Amino acid sequence: MSLTINGQRRDAFGKNASYRIRREGRVPAVLYGEGLTTVSLALEKKDVIHILKSDSGENSLFKVGFDGELRDVMIKALQVDPVSDELLHVDLIQISMDKAIRVSVPVEHQGEPIGVKTEGGFVDFVTREVEVECLPKDIPERVTIDISGLHLHQSIKVSDLIAPAGVKFISDPTTVVILVQVPHEEKVEEKKEGEEAVVAEEAKEPEVIKKERAPSEDEKDKDKEKEKEKEKDRGKEKKEK
Prior knowledge:
22% of the residues lie in helices and 34% in strands.
């Protein structure tokens, strides 16, 4: 733990005081820990960013100096403006170097799976961080796994990971970390030849053709009798005239 940053104890609080601190290129911070009274500090923003950009990132162990003393600390939480990404506040936690702590470390993969190279699959990074427990000096920067031997539908779970010396995995052993699976394809049903024409024909309304019914013999006789009666009526009309 060679990195040391300097902090200043702050006595002014509130939005205005925090604004002034940020305008000066610093960032408000608090330091707390087991058996420790919370201390409000102001840190140089460039020092905090330097720690965040290091290989260990938020898991970096460093010393913060204030009031003539040094404390072993880690970054516990950050507050960042969602629009400008400006660093607004830092929570520091004091670390006891002889006590195990729990932190989350990133998972890094190596190699290209067989299921991707020759079987048409792709890698799904299901879990990108795992939780571990260890002494502060044993915190790994990352957990590296070789995925080159994975075939389609095969996965690596937390239980398959090999923990570095002095490190214990806390995450659920059944948690899937890496999975090789088949890309989702949109299934399109192909229509058989002529099917569209049949569907179109069925969609049309049936044409109803009305045919005239041929008259029966009885109907023909009745028509003849009606015609004779009409002839008689016309004859009577002529005689009366």
